[in-house]
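To the wet lab folks,

You asked to see what we're planning to order before we commit. Fair enough. Below is the target structure as tokens, and below that is the sequence we designed to fit it. If anything looks off to you, flag it before the synthesis order goes out.
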């Protein structure tokens, strides 16, 4: 469960990074000037987004991350409570085992083994449920970023939008004048605020 909890934000970040690579094939007329909140020139056909900054500043991603942390904490607390109850049963059995008959001990041990298996199954099911929900949210995140970038790139005349991340550097160097992260974050956050209303 702990691996799942710590992996949630890593998986979401990796998925979001993959979502940012978008290519637009239709040629658009280019306009002069600089993009809002950044130094990227609209005449540049290839630009990039810093996915680390995008994820740090995208309100939708932050909200999803908080939701998953709360759900993970709740699932962990529930599992801890069930595990503690099971440990109390085992301790009670061990304390009273000497006064039980062989049949009673065998029956109790069988029941405790079933409970232990049920607890392991519950843990696995809870982890799977979180993973499935995370996959749905990652798909939404992918679609939001991808859909926004398709429209944004077309409007700005960008032919390719690449991604940059320190943790997974697919782009080793890019001139900062090609960085459109601020305008993308501003646009995504504006859409998110509009969707929340």
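Sequence we intend to order:
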């Amino acid at each position: 469960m702990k691996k799942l909890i710590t992996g949630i934000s890593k998986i979401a970040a990796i998925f979001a990074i993959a979502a940012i690579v978008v290519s637009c094939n239709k040629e658009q007329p280019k306009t002069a000037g600089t993009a809002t909140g950044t130094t990227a020139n609209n005449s540049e056909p290839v630009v990039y987004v810093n996915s680390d900054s995008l994820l740090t500043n995208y309100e939708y991603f932050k909200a999803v991350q908080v939701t998953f942390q709360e759900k993970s904490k709740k699932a962990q607390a529930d599992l801890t409570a069930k595990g503690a109850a099971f440990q109390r049963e085992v301790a009670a059995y061990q304390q009273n085992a000497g006064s039980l008959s062989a049949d009673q001990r065998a029956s109790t041990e069988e029941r405790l083994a079933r409970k232990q298996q049920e607890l392991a199954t519950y843990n696995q099911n809870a982890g799977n449920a979180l993973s499935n929900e995370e996959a749905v949210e990652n798909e939404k995140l992918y679609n939001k970023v991808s859909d926004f970038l398709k429209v944004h790139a077309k409007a700005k005349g960008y032919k390719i939008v690449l991604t940059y991340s320190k943790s997974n550097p697919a782009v080793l160097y890019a001139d900062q004048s090609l960085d459109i992260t601020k305008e993308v974050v501003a646009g995504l956050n504006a859409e998110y605020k509009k969707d929340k209303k």
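Structural context that might help your review: The first helix runs from residue 2 to 19. DSSP finds five helices and three strands in the chain.

Thanks,
Computational group
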